[in-house]
Specification:
There is one protein chain. By secondary structure, this protein is an alpha/beta fold. About 45% of the residues lie in helices and about 15% in strands. It is built from nine helices and seven strands. The chain has helices at about 1-5, 40-50, 65-75, 90-105, 125-155, 175-195, 215-220, 225-235, 245-255; strands at about 30-35, 55-60, 80-85, 110, 160-165, 200-210, 265. The chain has a seven-stranded parallel sheet with strand order 3-2-1-4-5-6-7, sandwiched between helices. α2 (about 40-50) runs parallel beside α3 and α5 runs parallel beside α6 (about 175-195). The termini are far apart. The structure holds NADPH dihydro-nicotinamide-adenine-dinucleotide phosphate. The site of NADPH dihydro-nicotinamide-adenine-dinucleotide phosphate (NDP) has 30 residues, from α2, α5 and α7.
């Protein structure tokens, strides 16, 4: 106790930290922007954040799907609104953050989750397809983070959560631009984490395993045997579901993770550690 109450000397000044609020996972009063928050993993994360008390901006393209998500989030007792974005476009990403701050008064948490895949052999991609995947999955996350940085500084800090993949770690023959973008997400998170630690902004990546969403329904059609391969390799013995992402979202968005930055955390039922 004496150690904790001692006045900081010059030698210990940098060892001090702010005391935590009573509830380490409390997000009341915080505002989260979730790209692709209208379904799949993004909505799973948005639900976790809302249950912890955060107000949620659902950012996506599909209006009907987004409005259904907003209604579900409002049912959890928080404020929520749909703000349309096409993350392939720089101006749209910047407008999303500006509009979120205008409508909600602040931006504390950014979840860069919007993503797509185009599955082909590497020799068959057009440059247009390559850029579409890189722009959607990686460049958009950089632009949204860059736009959110001054908003987070204004409120004394923030949390950026970037969505990677098992393809951040592994390769696969049919997914070169996607794996490139998801590897980039991990390195971008590390670089931003080092740059923005001084602003009390923590930047981390989440690497989902195989999760049952619209994206992987398509993959199961494109890649024969995928379903059985995933079951065989995943120690948990099942596909993940979007609700599996509620907990990691709350952890990485809350004071519980204030000394956690630049990491890439697999949420994969053990897929990534199976020998
Ligand atoms: P979904 O297809 O359900 O979600 C993708 C989301 O991205 C949708 O909400 C979609 O919104 C949004 N989106 C895509 N393109 C754009 C765009 N140009 N502008 C705005 N929003 C866009 O799939 P998942 O939930 O599975 O994917 C979410 C993230 O998780 C992705 O980054 C994906 O790569 C990653 N991931 C998923 C895994 C899985 O097994 N499912 C495994 C590893 C990573 P809208 O419908 O409005 O277009």
């Amino acid at each position: 106790l004496a150690h904790h109450t001692r006045r900081p000397s010059s030698a210990t000044a940098n060892l001090q930290r702010e005391p935590h609020s009573m509830n380490l996972f409390d997000l009341k009063g915080k505002v989260a922007v979730v790209t692709g928050g209208n379904g799949g993993i993004g909505l799973g994360m948005a639900k976790g954040l809302a249950k912890a008390g955060a107000d949620i901006v659902v950012a996506g393209r599909d209006k009907a799907k987004s409005e259904a998500a907003v209604a579900e989030l409002k049912g959890l007792g928080v404020k929520s609104a749909f703000i349309a974005v096409d993350v392939e476009k720089e101006a749209s990403c910047r407008a999303l953050i500006t509009e979120s701050a205008k409508q909600f008064g602040r931006v504390d948490i950014l979840v860069n989750n919007a993503g797509i895949n185009i599955r082909k052999q590497p020799e068959d991609y057009t440059m247009e397809e390559w850029h579409k995947v890189l722009n959607t999955n990686l460049t958009s996350a950089f632009i949204c983070s860059q736009a959110a940085h001054p908003e987070m500084k204004k409120v004394g800090g923030g949390k950026v959560i970037n969505i990677g993949s098992m393809m951040s770690l592994f390769g696969a023959p049919y997914t070169t631009p996607y794996a490139t973008s998801k590897g980039g997400i991990v390195q971008m998170s590390r670089a931003l984490a080092t740059a923005w630690a001084k602003d009390n902004i923590q930047v981390n990546a989440v690497l989902p395993g195989w999760i049952d969403t619209a994206l992987t329904k398509r993959a199961r059609l494109d890649v024969p045997q995928l379903h059985d391969d995933v079951l065989r390799r995943t120690p948990a013995g099942r596909w993940g579901v979007p609700d599996d992402f509620e907990g990691i979202a709350v952890f990485l968005a809350s004071p519980a993770s204030d000394f956690v930055t630049g990491t890439a955390i697999p949420v994969c039922g053990g897929f990534s550690i199976r020998g």
